[in-house]
Protein backbone atom coordinates (compact mmCIF):
# COMPACT_ATOMS: atom_id res chain seq x y z
CA UNK A 1 0.00 0.00 0.00
CA UNK A 2 2.74 2.46 0.99
CA UNK A 3 4.72 1.61 -2.16
CA UNK A 4 1.71 2.48 -4.35
CA UNK A 5 1.18 5.73 -2.47
CA UNK A 6 4.84 6.64 -2.89
CA UNK A 7 4.68 5.83 -6.59
CA UNK A 8 1.53 7.92 -7.06
CA UNK A 9 3.09 10.77 -5.10
CA UNK A 10 6.23 10.69 -7.23
CA UNK A 11 4.34 10.85 -10.53
CA UNK A 12 1.99 13.49 -9.16
CA UNK A 13 4.92 15.65 -8.08
CA UNK A 14 6.65 15.12 -11.42
CA UNK A 15 3.57 16.16 -13.38
CA UNK A 16 3.12 19.14 -11.07
CA UNK A 17 6.68 20.38 -11.52
CA UNK A 18 6.50 19.91 -15.29
CA UNK A 19 3.36 22.03 -15.34
CA UNK A 20 5.08 24.64 -13.19
CA UNK A 21 8.09 24.77 -15.51
CA UNK A 22 5.83 25.02 -18.57
CA UNK A 23 3.85 27.86 -16.94
CA UNK A 24 7.07 29.70 -16.08
CA UNK A 25 8.27 29.31 -19.67
CA UNK A 26 5.02 30.80 -21.00
CA UNK A 27 5.20 33.63 -18.47
CA UNK A 28 8.79 34.44 -19.43
CA UNK A 29 7.95 34.34 -23.14
CA UNK A 30 5.00 36.73 -22.80
CA UNK A 31 6.96 39.02 -20.47
CA UNK A 32 9.94 39.22 -22.81
CA UNK A 33 8.25 39.34 -26.22
CA UNK A 34 4.77 40.59 -25.42
CA UNK A 35 1.58 39.86 -27.33
CA UNK A 36 1.81 42.58 -30.01
CA UNK A 37 3.28 42.17 -33.48
CA UNK A 38 5.07 38.86 -33.94
CA UNK A 39 4.71 38.08 -30.26
CA UNK A 40 6.22 34.70 -29.42
CA UNK A 41 7.61 34.36 -32.94
CA UNK A 42 10.31 36.83 -31.89
CA UNK A 43 11.73 33.93 -29.90
CA UNK A 44 12.91 32.57 -33.28
CA UNK A 45 13.07 35.76 -35.33
CA UNK A 46 15.41 37.67 -33.00
CA UNK A 47 18.30 35.14 -32.89
CA UNK A 48 17.70 34.23 -36.56
CA UNK A 49 18.24 37.85 -37.62
CA UNK A 50 21.37 37.95 -35.49
CA UNK A 51 22.79 34.81 -37.14
CA UNK A 52 22.00 36.10 -40.63
CA UNK A 53 23.51 39.49 -39.80
CA UNK A 54 26.78 37.94 -38.63
CA UNK A 55 26.90 35.77 -41.76
CA UNK A 56 26.39 38.77 -44.04
CA UNK A 57 29.13 40.77 -42.31
CA UNK A 58 31.68 37.94 -42.51
CA UNK A 59 30.73 37.09 -46.11
CA UNK A 60 32.54 40.27 -47.20
CA UNK A 61 35.82 38.75 -46.03
CA UNK A 62 37.62 37.74 -49.21
CA UNK A 63 39.89 35.19 -47.55
CA UNK A 64 37.97 32.02 -46.78
CA UNK A 65 38.82 29.01 -44.68
CA UNK A 66 40.91 26.11 -46.05
CA UNK A 67 39.29 23.21 -47.94
CA UNK A 68 37.09 25.60 -49.92
CA UNK A 69 34.95 26.58 -46.92
CA UNK A 70 33.51 30.09 -47.15
CA UNK A 71 33.10 32.24 -44.02
CA UNK A 72 29.33 32.34 -44.62
CA UNK A 73 29.09 28.54 -44.72
CA UNK A 74 31.27 28.02 -41.65
CA UNK A 75 29.30 30.57 -39.61
CA UNK A 76 25.96 29.23 -40.85
CA UNK A 77 26.89 25.87 -39.35
CA UNK A 78 28.83 27.08 -36.30
CA UNK A 79 27.23 30.27 -35.03
CA UNK A 80 23.87 28.75 -33.94
CA UNK A 81 25.80 26.51 -31.52
CA UNK A 82 26.96 29.62 -29.68
CA UNK A 83 23.39 30.65 -28.87
CA UNK A 84 22.93 27.79 -26.37
CA UNK A 85 25.58 28.71 -23.82
CA UNK A 86 25.74 32.45 -24.49
CA UNK A 87 22.02 33.28 -24.45
CA UNK A 88 21.35 30.66 -21.79
CA UNK A 89 23.89 32.16 -19.43
CA UNK A 90 22.70 35.72 -20.07
CA UNK A 91 19.08 34.85 -19.29
CA UNK A 92 19.62 32.51 -16.35
CA UNK A 93 22.23 34.55 -14.46
CA UNK A 94 20.44 36.31 -11.60
CA UNK A 95 17.08 34.76 -12.54
CA UNK A 96 16.27 33.61 -9.00
CA UNK A 97 16.78 37.06 -7.47
CA UNK A 98 14.71 38.72 -10.18
CA UNK A 99 11.86 36.23 -9.67
CA UNK A 100 12.16 35.90 -5.89
CA UNK A 101 8.51 36.91 -5.43
CA UNK A 102 7.40 33.79 -7.33
CA UNK A 103 8.90 31.60 -4.62
CA UNK A 104 6.03 32.57 -2.32
CA UNK A 105 3.87 30.23 -4.41
CA UNK A 106 4.43 26.82 -2.85
CA UNK A 107 4.68 24.65 -6.01
CA UNK A 108 7.43 26.87 -7.46
CA UNK A 109 10.99 25.93 -6.55
CA UNK A 110 14.14 27.93 -7.34
CA UNK A 111 15.35 25.19 -9.70
CA UNK A 112 12.07 25.45 -11.64
CA UNK A 113 12.95 29.06 -12.48
CA UNK A 114 16.40 28.02 -13.69
CA UNK A 115 15.12 25.03 -15.67
CA UNK A 116 12.34 27.05 -17.30
CA UNK A 117 14.75 29.68 -18.59
CA UNK A 118 17.26 27.09 -19.76
CA UNK A 119 14.57 25.17 -21.65
CA UNK A 120 13.20 28.38 -23.17
CA UNK A 121 16.61 29.48 -24.47
CA UNK A 122 17.52 26.00 -25.68
CA UNK A 123 14.16 25.67 -27.47
CA UNK A 124 14.70 29.03 -29.14
CA UNK A 125 18.26 28.18 -30.23
CA UNK A 126 17.28 24.76 -31.57
CA UNK A 127 14.27 26.19 -33.41
CA UNK A 128 16.51 28.79 -35.07
CA UNK A 129 18.93 26.12 -36.30
CA UNK A 130 16.17 23.80 -37.55
CA UNK A 131 14.52 26.75 -39.30
CA UNK A 132 17.61 28.30 -40.91
CA UNK A 133 19.70 25.25 -41.84
CA UNK A 134 17.28 23.84 -44.48
CA UNK A 135 16.98 27.35 -45.95
CA UNK A 136 20.77 27.65 -46.15
CA UNK A 137 20.90 24.31 -47.99
CA UNK A 138 18.22 25.40 -50.47
CA UNK A 139 19.91 28.74 -51.26
CA UNK A 140 23.30 27.05 -51.62
CA UNK A 141 25.11 28.46 -48.60
CA UNK A 142 25.38 25.00 -47.03
CA UNK A 143 25.30 21.44 -48.34
CA UNK A 144 23.75 18.28 -46.97
CA UNK A 145 25.61 16.91 -43.91
CA UNK A 146 28.13 14.15 -44.39
CA UNK A 147 26.52 12.22 -41.54
CA UNK A 148 23.24 13.45 -40.06
CA UNK A 149 23.57 11.07 -37.08
CA UNK A 150 27.07 12.30 -36.18
CA UNK A 151 25.97 15.89 -36.60
CA UNK A 152 22.94 15.31 -34.35
CA UNK A 153 25.07 13.62 -31.67
CA UNK A 154 27.53 16.52 -31.80
CA UNK A 155 24.62 18.92 -31.42
CA UNK A 156 23.43 17.03 -28.34
CA UNK A 157 26.94 17.24 -26.86
CA UNK A 158 26.90 21.02 -27.36
CA UNK A 159 23.51 21.21 -25.64
CA UNK A 160 24.84 19.08 -22.78
CA UNK A 161 27.88 21.34 -22.37
CA UNK A 162 25.64 24.40 -22.42
CA UNK A 163 23.35 22.91 -19.76
CA UNK A 164 26.25 22.23 -17.39
CA UNK A 165 27.90 25.57 -18.10
CA UNK A 166 24.69 27.55 -17.57
CA UNK A 167 24.03 25.74 -14.27
CA UNK A 168 27.55 26.57 -13.07
CA UNK A 169 27.28 30.22 -14.06
CA UNK A 170 23.79 30.53 -12.54
CA UNK A 171 24.95 29.06 -9.24
CA UNK A 172 28.12 31.15 -9.07
CA UNK A 173 26.19 34.31 -9.95
CA UNK A 174 23.81 33.74 -7.05
CA UNK A 175 26.77 33.22 -4.69
CA UNK A 176 28.93 36.07 -5.97
CA UNK A 177 27.85 39.49 -7.22
CA UNK A 178 31.22 39.76 -8.99
CA UNK A 179 30.41 36.75 -11.19
CA UNK A 180 26.98 38.18 -11.95
CA UNK A 181 28.44 41.55 -13.01
CA UNK A 182 31.28 40.06 -15.06
CA UNK A 183 29.43 37.12 -16.64
CA UNK A 184 29.12 38.94 -19.98
CA UNK A 185 32.90 39.48 -19.98
CA UNK A 186 33.45 35.76 -19.39
CA UNK A 187 31.17 34.98 -22.33
CA UNK A 188 33.09 37.31 -24.65
CA UNK A 189 36.42 35.84 -23.56
CA UNK A 190 35.08 32.38 -24.43
CA UNK A 191 34.38 33.31 -28.06
CA UNK A 192 37.90 32.55 -29.39
CA UNK A 193 37.74 29.15 -27.65
CA UNK A 194 34.26 28.14 -28.82
CA UNK A 195 35.16 26.69 -32.23
CA UNK A 196 32.72 29.09 -33.86
CA UNK A 197 35.16 31.47 -35.53
CA UNK A 198 38.47 29.58 -35.44
CA UNK A 199 38.42 25.96 -36.70
CA UNK A 200 40.71 23.55 -34.88
CA UNK A 201 42.38 22.50 -38.12
CA UNK A 202 43.96 25.96 -38.51
CA UNK A 203 45.39 25.95 -34.96
CA UNK A 204 48.98 24.62 -34.91
CA UNK A 205 50.30 22.11 -32.41
CA UNK A 206 50.80 22.03 -29.47
CA UNK A 207 48.09 24.68 -29.00
CA UNK A 208 45.46 22.51 -30.66
CA UNK A 209 46.02 19.76 -28.09
CA UNK A 210 45.63 22.28 -25.29
CA UNK A 211 42.35 23.54 -26.76
CA UNK A 212 40.93 20.02 -26.90
CA UNK A 213 40.93 19.88 -23.10
CA UNK A 214 37.99 22.29 -23.32
CA UNK A 215 34.95 20.01 -23.87
CA UNK A 216 33.11 22.62 -25.93
CA UNK A 217 35.82 22.47 -28.60
CA UNK A 218 35.50 18.68 -28.76
CA UNK A 219 31.71 18.84 -29.04
CA UNK A 220 31.75 21.52 -31.74
CA UNK A 221 34.41 19.69 -33.73
CA UNK A 222 32.43 16.44 -33.56
CA UNK A 223 29.44 18.43 -34.80
CA UNK A 224 31.59 19.81 -37.63
CA UNK A 225 32.75 16.30 -38.47
CA UNK A 226 29.13 15.29 -38.97
CA UNK A 227 28.58 18.20 -41.35
CA UNK A 228 31.83 18.40 -43.33
CA UNK A 229 32.57 14.67 -43.32
CA UNK A 230 35.98 13.10 -43.77
CA UNK A 231 37.06 15.73 -46.31
CA UNK A 232 37.84 18.19 -43.52
CA UNK A 233 40.05 17.15 -40.57
CA UNK A 234 38.37 17.08 -37.18
CA UNK A 235 39.87 16.63 -33.73
CA UNK A 236 37.91 15.35 -30.74
CA UNK A 237 38.05 12.82 -27.91
CA UNK A 238 34.51 11.62 -27.22
CA UNK A 239 35.34 9.54 -24.12
CA UNK A 240 37.07 12.53 -22.50
CA UNK A 241 34.22 14.83 -23.57
CA UNK A 242 31.58 12.60 -21.96
CA UNK A 243 33.61 12.40 -18.75
CA UNK A 244 34.14 16.18 -18.65
CA UNK A 245 30.48 16.96 -19.38
CA UNK A 246 29.33 14.58 -16.64
CA UNK A 247 31.64 16.34 -14.20
CA UNK A 248 30.40 19.77 -15.31
CA UNK A 249 26.77 18.73 -14.88
CA UNK A 250 27.30 17.30 -11.39
CA UNK A 251 29.27 20.38 -10.34
CA UNK A 252 26.58 22.65 -11.82
CA UNK A 253 23.82 20.87 -9.91
CA UNK A 254 25.88 20.99 -6.70
CA UNK A 255 26.75 24.69 -6.96
CA UNK A 256 23.15 25.53 -7.88
CA UNK A 257 21.97 23.60 -4.82
CA UNK A 258 24.31 25.60 -2.58
CA UNK A 259 23.08 28.85 -4.15
CA UNK A 260 19.44 27.87 -3.63
CA UNK A 261 20.06 27.14 0.05
CA UNK A 262 21.54 30.62 0.44
CA UNK A 263 18.51 32.13 -1.30
CA UNK A 264 16.14 30.29 1.05
CA UNK A 265 18.07 31.42 4.12
CA UNK A 266 18.07 35.05 3.01
Short description:
It is built from ten helices and no strands.
> Strand-residue fraction?
under 5%
Number of discrete helical segments: 10
Helix content: over 70%
| Gross morphology | globular
Order of helices and strands: HHHHHHHHHH
> What is the averaged pLDDT score?
82
Kindly provide the radius of gyration, computed on alpha-carbon positions and rounded to a whole number of angstroms: 20 Å
Using DSSP, what is the number of strands?
0
What is the terminal separation in angstroms? 40 Å
Secondary structure class reads: mainly alpha
Low-confidence parts: none
Q: What's the story with the biggest beta sheet?
A: none
Give structural notes.
By secondary structure, the protein is mainly alpha-helical. Helix content is 73%, strand content 0%. The chain has 10 helices and no strands. The protein has helices spanning 2-33, 42-59, 71-92, 95-98, 110-139, 148-175, 177-190, 207-211, 215-228, 238-265. Helix 3 runs antiparallel to helix 5 and helix 3 packs parallel to helix 6. The radius of gyration is 20 Å and the shape is globular. The two termini are 40 Å apart. The model has no long low-confidence stretch (mean pLDDT 82).
Q: In terms of topology, how is this protein built?
A:
Blueprint: H1 2-33, H2 42-59, H3 71-92, H4 95-98, H5 110-139, H6 148-175, H7 177-190, H8 207-211, H9 215-228, H10 238-265
Helix pairs in contact: 1-5, 2-3, 2-5, 3-5, 3-6, 6-7, 6-9, 6-10, 9-10
